[in-house]
Known about the structure:
Blueprint: E1 13-14, E2 21-22, E3 29-33, E4 36-40, H1 43-52, E5 62-64, E6 67-73, H2 79-91, E7 96-102, E8 107-112, H3 119-128, E9 136-143, H4 148-159, E10 164-170, E11 175-180, H5 187-196, E12 200-201, H6 211-244, H7 252-255, H8 261-281, H9 283-293
Antiparallel strand pairs: 1-2, 3-4, 5-6, 6-8, 7-8, 9-11, 9-12, 10-11
Amino acid sequence: MIETTKPQSAATVRDPVCGMTIDPAQAFATRAAGLETLYFCSERCVGQYDREHTSSATTGISVTGKLRRIELSVADFDGRQGARRLEEQFKTLPGVRQVTANSGAKLVRIEYDPAQAQVETMVERARTVGYTLGTATTQLDIQGMHCASCVVAIEEALQHTPGVLKASVNLATQQAHIEYVPGLIDRKGLSQAVKDAGYQAREASAPGGTMIDRADQDRAREYSTLLRKFWFATIVSLPVIIFSYPQFFPGLRDWLTPGSDARRIVWGLLGLLTIPVLAWASHFFTGMWQVLKHR
């Protein structure tokens, strides 16, 4: 329903559809969105808003059927001519239905079919023609990486996450460096992608501590844990090795003769003794289980 009462405030507002700055008193129409009043500059804009019914001021994304509308900021528009040039570039991409670039608001709104077009492709196209879209970078500290295959698994999981433009993982620092589009994905979503790959993202840095200090502490803690597991496995494995080859040790060769009941009982006990080594002291098996859980 179009409200007929016009506000008397002299402050300007922005049309949520086209991004144009307008005087609230001169708005063509208004709409109530929760506790907020939206102002529209023309019949076309209010009509488009009514058709879509949904709009997000925080993420710039709305969904209408199978189409999705996303709003991206542009840092270096070159006037209206530059806006038209960027519109033409986006319209050539498969799956892009409608593009509206506003040089004054430094925004571009794109309506596209997510089954045919990807935001990553749009960002890359804008960069190719000389524009810089609003992206963000972040770093995640990863737990559970032990080899190059872990790095590949995490990078692939992140790069296949919608909204992620680039992802590189450093095994030495146990960190992932990620470039992404705000509004499509956030830090929580990135952490969830790492978890889905079978690993864990570390908590944020503690107040007063630096990232390097925390990374050093984490590596020292992991080294201490692996060292304890090593000595435990060593203590358990020594009797396993000795009693597995009694023929090489005087006294045992006469007691544990081949086929004797004593030898069968000792081997059964040795089998039980190796279970904690396999289940706890070996990170290879626990790592394998994490990967199997996530297929």
